[in-house]
Amino acid sequence: MSEHAMNFMPAEGFRARAKDVVENPFLRQSFRGAMDFLINKRITQFPDAEELETLRTLGEQIRQYNLGKLPALLVQLEENLTRNGIQVHWAETPDEANAIILGICQAHSAKLMVKGKSMVSEEIELNHACAAVGIEAMESDMGEYIVQLAGEKPSHIIMPAIHKTKEEIARLFNEKVPGVDYTDNVDELIQIGRKILREKFLVADIGLSGVNFAVAETGTLCLVENEGNGRLSTTSPPVHIAITGIEKIVEKLDHVPPLLSLLTRSATGQNISTYFNMISGPRKAGEKDGPGEVHLVLLDNGRSQAYADEQLRKTLQCIRCGACMNHCPVYTRIGGHAYGTTYPGPIGKIISPHMLGLEATSTMATA
Amino acid sequence: MSARDRILAKLHAAPVLPKAAPDIAAWYQTHRGTESIVEKTDRFRSCIEFAHAEVHAVSPGSWLDKLAEVLAAKQIGKLLVAPRTAHGASAIAGLAQGGIECRGYDSPIEDWKDEMFHAIPASLTSARCAIAETGTLVLWPDEHEPRLMSLVPPVHIVLLDVATIHNTFYEAMQSEGWANGLPTNALLISGPSKTADIQVTLAYGAHGPKELVVLLVGEEA
């Protein structure tokens, strides 16, 4: 597929893709408007500049402390997850991660996977890997669902469909979803998505999610979200598979509150997300719901290369709030797709070379 | 060598750059004050109302009447309850006369998943505690009051004892000793389900409950 090829060699065609966006006033307006909105939302969450600076410093200390102990913490996390009944898998490459996930799916004769939002699953192109073996992988985050319906990729790591207007989404639903009339009323569009995806949550064989923080001392996987699709993906199907980069780990449970506060206030300008979901095991004897099996896939994919160098290691401190995109003058003008990488914008520029190689990302330095 | 061994070998080969442990307690001590129950209740309430939750102050003697009133106002005739909890049993005993059918979550979800997704308009659960700073309910679902109760029904009604409200998330986990043992699933809930994924326009009722109702149980209503 062309989008796969684009991801394989993002440097090719970068200038042409960027030019297309720069010359498209509608897209320019979509990105400018959305980024200004997110910048202002973030400002209102941090009225006290001193608090913001000290909290950011604390957040950096937490991330640096945990990266300093990364190999030992991964082993501790594995021990405690295993003790809790969560099965841990390790993958060096996207292909290995896909093989692990497909293996679990096939062991359960799975036909339908419902997905909570996971950028790491985008990074490994999991949906393509599922399709190749006849497993339907269905995105359930509203933005991801829209992007999947359109046959596109997310253009922003927090707001996947930010490049689309409600009128475009209305036309998309009208064309692609059977029995749906044209409506550009946002509430109605969301209710259409809710109705369709609820039936998927009801019957899905596998629920897949990302991880925002993995807590080593308790063996806990934490997920941040607003819609409830992350909770449904991790609670309703009989099997839950989580996937994360190896860097998303903290030693102590009390490392979580400062990072959570920085994440939600910076990402969407909320003092906290609607849901914060902490998973410490599969369904226990006597419990009446929750998945009978929980798996975690730990993915390297270039992160250990970044780890090897003191300066590059700092790229692993990122908590994926996306604020760097919102504030980036280049991202705001060319949008996420022009980069051709899973992670666009400033964070994408510094982590994508580790994942895809310098040649494939050679235009990043000038983006 | 396994993928595990190769990844760990690469990380071990990297320079060891130990960093001092972060002093999280000191930050909270400097940047977050402690408040009285009344102040915490007010802050909790204003935050969660800002997030579109519906809040009613009740007392231990009046919450059941308020629950019936809320259900009547929303024209809801069926409520999912946890029969082996005290509040679930009270609801079953107290709502029958008003014509509310209480459906008990009394068997594994596999036995009645379709009904849960299609025929349960509302649920009642308790909250373990709450967080004033962010207007957050804390739920620790268990075998009696399972996880899907607070997720699938379109209306979720929660009982919260105001004496259990903490100032911050950090204070909640510290004072309750969460690191010593977490349940299968611990949840922070700070409003009804929502999304801004279409043109950054806020819409409620994305995938979880469309409405969140908090019955704030204090000494006096």
Protein architecture, described:
The complex is a heterodimer of chains A (367) and B (221). In chain A, the strands form two sheets. A six-stranded parallel beta sheet of chain A has the order 1-10-7-4-2-3, with helices on both faces. Chain A has a four-stranded mixed beta sheet with strand order 8-5-6-9, with helices on both faces. Chain A has two domains: 1-45 and 322-367, no CATH class; 66-314, Rossmann fold. Chain A has 18 helices and ten strands. Chain A is of the alpha/beta class. Helix content of chain A is 50%, strand content 13%. The longest helix of chain A is centred in the first third of the chain and has 21 residues, at 25-45. Chain A has helices at residues 2-8, 14-22, 25-45, 49-68, 70-83, 94-107, 119-123, 126-132, 142-149, 166-176, 186-203, 229-235, 256-267, 303-307, 310-313, 323-327, 329-334, 345-356, and strands at residues 86-91, 112-115, 136-139, 206-209, 213-215, 220-225, 239-245, 249-250, 275-279, 293-299. With 221 residues, chain B is α/β, with parallel strands linked by helices. In chain B, 30% of the residues lie in helices and 23% in strands. At the A-B interface, helix 3, helix 4, helix 5, helix 9 and helix 11 of A face helix 1, helix 2, helix 6, helix 7 and strand 9 of B. Strand 9 (275-279) of chain A pairs antiparallel with strand 9 of chain B.
Summarize the structure.
The complex is a heterodimer of chains A (367) and B (221). Chain A is α/β, with parallel strands linked by helices and 367 residues long. In chain A, 50% of the residues lie in helices and 13% in strands.
Give the number of DSSP strands of chain B.
12
Strand content of chain B: 15-25%
In terms of quaternary structure, what is this? heterodimer
CATH topology of the largest domain in chain A: Rossmann fold
Q: What's the CATH architecture of the largest domain in chain A?
A: 3-Layer(aba) Sandwich
Number of self-contained structural domains of chain B: 1
Q: If helices are DSSP runs of H or I spanning 4 or more residues, what is the number of helices of chain B? A: 7
Unreliable spans of chain B are: none
Note the main sheet of chain B.
4 strands, parallel
Q: Would you identify the regions of chain A where 5 or more consecutive residues have pLDDT less than 50?
A: 1-6
Shape of chain A: globular
